[in-house]
Design goal:
CATH topology of the largest domain: Rossmann fold
Bound molecules: magnesium ion
CATH superfamily of the largest domain: HAD superfamily/HAD-like
Number of domains: 2
Strand order of the largest sheet: 3-2-1-4-5-6
Number of strands: 6
CATH architecture of the largest domain: 3-Layer(aba) Sandwich
Shape: globular
Order of helices and strands: EHHHHHHEHEHHEHEE
Radius of gyration: 17 Å
Structural class: alpha/beta
Helix content: 40-55%
Number of helices: 10
Mean pLDDT: 94
Largest sheet: 6 strands, parallel
Low-confidence stretches: none
Distance between the termini: 10 Å
CATH class of the largest domain: Alpha Beta
Length: 218
């Protein structure tokens, strides 16, 4: 079903990366399986105990810049996080129909910006594997902005840097809290991406127009 997004009115397409364009299975597997496994080996504890400890630790840093900072996690956990990500880079995948959507937006001369809470080192690893970097006019990592996307300051700085017009911008993300902040800031067109992982059931949103798949926009 075509969602009621008037693509003609849109000049700027703002896109989240993980879960929205790329399969979140990579990140779920990384933080939920590989990191606990390596942490357990290193500290001579069971996988279950490592997982419990890590999930509490992750939670305590949610919505902070530490959360997105893989160098922070390398220090905190005494593991080489970028090297571990490289180890499973084969799991980094673009969601179906994303490339066709990006090509179509380019053809219609939309400006395409990637706005991500991911660290620039993670972005580099993911761009190397997927080659999607070439479709973006610019890439903004919240780590470089100084605030995660859940905070209005992120949007104020993003607008200054990228010079998009919020009245003719479309923003797509798989995190409702991020969409709420974007709405408060005044981004006119918002979409919730429900199918985030190839291996998990879609999420749902009560508040935002939803797509499961980029084919719905073409
Ligand atoms: Mg996301």
């Amino acid at each position: 079903m075509l969602k009621k997004i008037p693509l003609d009115e849109i000049k700027y397409v703002l896109l989240d990366m993980d879960g929205t364009l790329l399969d979140l299975y990579f990140d779920d597997y990384f933080w939920g399986h590989l990191v606990p496994e390596k942490y357990a080996e290193k500290h001579n504890m069971s996988f279950g105990a490592a997982k419990d400890y890590l999930f509490t630790t992750y939670k305590s840093h949610e919505k902070t810049l530490n959360w997105c900072d893989i160098d922070f996690w390398s220090r905190e956990l005494h593991l080489d996080i970028p090297a571990l990500k490289e180890q499973i880079r084969h799991l980094i995948e673009v969601h179906p129909h994303v490339i066709d959507f990006l090509k179509l937006m380019k053809k219609h001369r939309k400006k395409i910006f990637l706005l991500t809470n991911a660290h620039f080192k993670t972005v580099r690893i993911k761009f190397n594997k997927t080659q999607i970097g070439k479709y973006f006019d610019d890439v903004l990592c919240s780590f470089n902005v100084g605030h995660p996307k859940e905070f209005i300051e992120f949007w104020q700085k993003a607008e200054k840097k990228l010079k998009f017009d919020k009245e003719c911008s479309l923003f797509i993300d798989d995190t409702e809290d991020v969409l709420k902040t974007a709405r408060e800031f005044g981004i006119k067109h918002l979409l919730f991406k429900a199918k985030v992982s190839s291996k998990a059931e879609p999420k749902s949103s009560e508040e935002f127009l939803t797509i499961h798949d980029f084919r719905e926009l073409m």
